[in-house]
Specification:
Elements: H1 2-35, E1 48-50, E2 56-63, H2 71-78, E3 80-82, E4 92-102, E5 108-118, E6 121-131, H3 132-140, H4 142-145
Antiparallel strand pairs: 1-4, 2-3, 2-4, 4-5, 5-6
Length: 153
């Protein structure tokens, strides 16, 4: 028994170091996939693929430096559909919503990119991943405004 207690700190350190290493690898993998335009499944952490559906655009009633608490609730209550980037007023932020499906577990999710349009480019403020079911009513609003966004985004 005394030998076990002698080696116990080493065993605990080894287990914690192994867990930290695995966690670090998963984080680096997720950052790598996101930097290459791919999302990671929020359920099983496998790579997801963007479905054929177009990217949806929504206007946000916030400007450059504004922050909001609880992104899921804020986005659900404040996103307004728009048809093209030309409808984004100067200095106002917008969101691009992509619907993704996991190749492993087949679950769907939305990847929401909050951005500010600056001189034709996008200054990304945040990227969020949420279950599709939560944002499905917002995506259905496209029927009310005449369909999905045009290709001239």
């Amino acid at each position: 028994m005394s030998e076990f207690t002698y080696y116990l700190p080493g065993i605990i350190f080894g287990v914690l170091a192994g867990a930290a290493l695995i966690w670090g690898i998963l984080i680096v993998r997720e950052l790598f996939l996101r930097s290459h335009g791919k999302a990671v499944c929020m359920y099983c952490k496998a790579a997801t693929a963007v479905l054929v559906t177009p990217q949806y655009l929504f206007l946000l009633p916030v400007s450059f430096g504004t922050r909001y608490e609880d992104p899921e609730q804020y986005l659900l209550s404040h996103m307004r559909p728009i048809l093209s980037k030309q409808q984004i007023p100067t200095g106002q932020r917008a969101c691009r919503v992509e619907v993704c499906r996991c190749g492993r577990c087949q679950k769907q999710q939305v990847v929401i990119t909050d951005f500010l349009q600056v001189r034709g480019g996008e200054s990304v403020k945040s990227t969020y991943v949420f279950p599709l079911e939560t944002f499905q009513p917002l995506l259905r609003q496209w029927d009310a405004i005449g369909g999905p966004p045009r290709a001239d985004r």
